[in-house]
Amino acid sequence: MTPILESDRPLSVLIVDDVPDQADSLAAVLNIHGYGTRSAHNGEDALEAVAASPPDVVFLDIGMPGMDGCELARRLREASAWKRPLMVAVSGQSEEADRTRTAEAGIDLHLAKPANPAVLVGVLERFRRVISC
């Protein structure tokens, strides 16, 4: 029997969006492609989810009430006890100023909503190849 290498395991993905239908739709697409997903609908729940089981990737909305996506990203970056996930903003806020703000918050990539599912899967596949090296 061939051992399963760390690089062969599917990436874990946390989807953070205050609109449950959008989070659920993205989760369904990613599940079809073999990714393990969890969802959170606000920043506090996302922090708890990451503390319980750090994901490899976080897809996050920026324009959430309460703790917005940029503040969530800052808190995740500051949390030294957790592994640092790749963070991808998937947001309707996609002007140049929004992209600058997400970069300053430590978000790795900023995609405009509605994001093409093939692009999101491609991002995950590229990331999986990078971490498997």
Averaged pLDDT: 89
In spatial order, strands of the major sheet run 2-1-3-4-5
Order of helices and strands: EHEHEHEHEH
Measured distance between first and last alpha carbons? 23 Å
Question: Which shape, going by the Cα principal axes?
Answer: globular
- Residue stretches low in confidence (pLDDT < 50, at least 5 long) are 1-6
Category from helices, strands and their pairing = alpha/beta
Tell me the β content: 15-25%
Task: Please give the largest β-sheet.
Answer: 5 strands, parallel
Share of residues in helices: 40-55%
Rg from Cα: 14 Å
Q: Total number of β-strand segments? A: 5
The number of helices is 5
Features of the shown structure:
single chain, 133 residues, alpha/beta, five-stranded parallel beta sheet, 5 helices, globular, disordered N terminus
Give an account of the 3D structure.
By secondary structure, the protein is of the alpha/beta class. Helices cover 43% and strands 18% of the residues. The protein has five helices and five strands. The chain has helices spanning 20-32, 43-52, 69-78, 96-104, 117-131; strands at 12-16, 36-40, 57-60, 86-91, 109-112. A five-stranded parallel sheet has the order 2-1-3-4-5, sandwiched between helices. The longest helix has 15 residues, at 117-131.
Task: Give a brief rundown of this model.
With 133 residues, the protein is α/β, with parallel strands linked by helices.
